[in-house]
Amino acid sequence: MDREKITLTGVPETLLATLHARACDSRSSHSLLHDRTALDTVRRIDYDFRRTGMNSVNAAGVALRARCLDDWTAAFLARHPRATVLHLACGLDTRAHRLARFPETRWIDVDLPEVVALRNRLLPVPDGDYRVLATSVTADGWLEELPADRPVVAVFEGLSMYLRPADGERLIRRITSHFPGGQLLFDCFNGLGVRMQRLIPVLRRTGATVYWGIDDPRALERLHPGLTCLDVIRGCDLPEVRHVPPLARFEARLTGLVPGVRDVFRMVRFEFPGGGG
Ligand SMILES: C[S@@+](CC[C@H](N)C(=O)[O-])C[C@H]1O[C@@H](n2cnc3c(N)ncnc32)[C@H](O)[C@@H]1O
Questions:
Q1: How much distance in Å is there from the Cα of 263 to the middle of ligand 1?
Q2: What is the CATH number of domain 65-272?
Q3: What percentage of residues in the chain have a pLDDT greater than 90?
Q4: Which of 75, 107, 155, 202 lies in the 20 to 30 Å Cα band around 95?
Q5: Residue 136 parent element (H or E)
Q6: Where are the beta strands (DSSP E) in 32-144?
Q7: Which of 9, 111, 142 is the pocket-test mutation for ligand 1 (most atoms within 8 Å of CB)?
Q8: Is-contact 165 211, C-beta < 8 A?
Q9: φ, ψ at 27 (rounded to 5°)
Q10: d(C-alpha 11, C-alpha 9), whole Å
């Protein structure tokens, strides 16, 4: 089998870290995601995965956040099966494959053109109403051209921190003003996480930079009338943490003891009105 040689650098290269983490999780007896496609995909890639700095502890952290977003997405779709799922910065993530979707759900994956090209070569196309868009999320126009006939659940994992704060806030404004209600589900760093970024191996090795630290997620409510923060959950407090390997559980417990550090990485869920709530 010819393996796919990876030429991505900078922020796009970081998708190898999260892919590798999901593959590690799927091999573990503690698996939270059971993502066989991630494992198969890693095997088809020619890349030195040691560059990602992933080990069983931080792979469990990635699996935890993915599981949280999977669960929130599934809960939204259970209430709104006809919704549009706007999965931004999809990378080589297989959320559309992992989640049992309704036939009437519309799924749109979005990432940069070089990532979408790689995705199209490596991943099977999921069933149902599915498409993938090759664009920067900060580019003008693409979002406004999407049909706005249904509530949206906009899911973005491993994206917000790489955006400039003004671009992140503009993205939230564009989603909330375009769609007739829905939810925003994403992970974020706080300001301390941005200041400490050079301690994170994948950022050091890929040269990627994070810019947007959100100290008070509830302050984003000002971006759209009725935008409401439903949940802010620290990475170390995610409910599935009880299922991760003992060392990862221990690290989460330690992190939880240190003010500031325990908020470095959080999951947030927002709702905005318009019939999609
Ligand atoms: C850490 S990876 C996460 C990928 C995927 N969500 C996952 O969990 O495996 C970061 C992703 O953000 C994407 N990304 C960064 N900036 C972007 C932008 N402006 N527009 C679209 N995608 C972007 C990168 O190409 C990459 O796929």
A1: 22
A2: 3.40.50.150
A3: 80
A4: 202
A5: none
A6: 45-46, 84-88, 106-111, 129-134
A7: 111
A8: yes
A9: -85, -15
A10: 7
* pTM of the predicted model as reported, rounded to 2 decimal places: 0.96
* 162 CA from centroid of ligand 1 (Å): 8
Spatial distance between the Cα atoms of 186 and 178, rounded to a whole number of angstroms: 18
Q: How far apart are CA 37 and CA 23, in angstroms?
A: 8
Q: Which residue has the tokens 């970024």?
A: 197
Give yes or no for residue 12 CB within 6 A of ligand 1: yes
246-255 vs 56-79: helix crossing angle, rounded to 10: 80
User: 177: which residues sit within 8 A by CB, 6+ positions away?
Assistant: 224
User: What is the pLDDT at residue 277?
Assistant: 42
Q: Which amino acid is at 189?
A: F
Instruction: List the Cα angle 233/177/172 in 5-degree steps.
Output: 35
